[in-house]
Amino acid sequence: MSAVDKAFHGLRHMIATGRLGAGERIPPEADLCEELGVSRGSLREAVRMLAALGVIEPRHGSGTYVSQLRPEDLIGSLSLTLQLLPLPGLLEVYEIRRVLEAHVAAKAAARATPGTVETLFSLIEAMEATEDPTEASELDHRFHAEIARAGGNPTLASLLAVFRARSRKYQVFTLPEGPELRQKSDADHRILATAIADRDPGAAAGAAEAHVAQTERWLRALMPPVEEEPGTSV
């Protein structure tokens, strides 16, 4: 085990066991280095790694603290690795996504407010009106994020947001078949939103699962290339 790994796992153990609680300031560098048997450089690298995962928060002029350790924040850090998945790996994740999207849709239907329903149909109308695939993708993300928010579990909403972020890199709507696929997708959105408006959890779950399964089939059949980030080149 390298010195950095030793420092990383040592700090993680302190947090996992509750020795360092959420929101607590971590001990001074000198004390930690002595206890863990590592150099300052190794400790600082371990702190940077934990900060990238959302576990530790360096605060300028104040010190370094354990984060609030909210599940939704820690789940969000999965994007660091999930964004690296190639399409075959992402397609394996779709089985999980089908289950979770159906679950949150059912919860959203049970808890739907007039405001939620109004937001969903407003987003659908905007999706149907735009001819810009990038805008359509953003609106699609907001539509599903609103359903997840209405489901009432921030951790599930965060996990699904991570899944969708990687999925959005593979844009089927920019392919020659795109217009036809978008029309089907928009129709699926209306079926799902209507089930939520009708406060029908079973219908909402079925519509959500069918919608995600359809997207998975498109990705498997068309194998679109990954979209570049704005301003990047290969």
From TrEMBL:
Domain of life of the source: Bacteria
HTH gntR-type domain location: 1-69
Keyword Transcription regulation: yes
One Pfam family per UniProt: GntR
Entry keyword set: DNA-binding, Transcription, Transcription regulation
CDD domains linked: WHTH_GntR (cd07377)
InterPro entries for the chain: GntR_C, TF_FadR/GntR_C, Tscrpt_reg_HTH_GntR, WH-like_DNA-bd_sf, WH_DNA-bd_sf
Classification via SUPFAM superfamilies: GntR ligand-binding domain-like, Winged helix' DNA-binding domain
Name recorded for this polypeptide: FadR/GntR family transcriptional regulator
